Amino acid sequence: MTHIKDIAKRPSKADIEALAKFSPATIHEAQGRRGALSSRLKPVDYRMKLCGPAFTVKCAPQDNIMLQLAINYAKPGDIIVVSAGEYEEAGSFGDVLANACLAKGIGGLVTDTGVRDTLQLRELGFPVFSLSVCIKGTVKETIATINDPVIVGGEIINPGDIVIGDADGLVIVRREEAQDVARLSQARDEAEAGYIEAYKQGKSVIEVSKLEPVLKAKGLIGSI
Q1: Is the overall model pTM greater than 0.90, yes or no?
Q2: Residue 223 above 60 pLDDT?
């Protein structure tokens, strides 16, 4: 078995930059309400953002040997995505490994287990999204795989899929759909800017959202 592979097909820098302009919420809506990871995965600091290709790794619960190998082999800009069985009672990543990531130019970490040293992580500014915060340590025993598809946050994530995250959450965009999703996200942003301008011009929510026929169909007619 080959345990360690590189990302077979990486998204282009242009595709990553195009998607980085938009929030995960906008992207999720624009691509048909697909790709959102579980809301249980949270950034350790609300100011943290990330956008880059998924560098996936499978870890046994309470074991971070494969995470350390992923950090060793990941390339600048990669987002390390860890599948560890949604095990909350382990702090598998902290300030020491964050410094290793920063030294390599890695773009961030998404993990379905716990992290620790969150004060230092905030000070370092390295983007970390995790299932929990936990001080309990890990072992280095179980060999698994790097850059196979994983399930994290209820979504299948392939190596090279684009991961976008901010204070509101995380979303996945398939590498081959990146250009279409960026275009749809731009259209949604422009439409929402139009709604905001309409409100400023005095239009009502019912007018802007075209709710009158919907409300009539549900038997809510008349005015207050």
Answers
A1: yes
A2: no
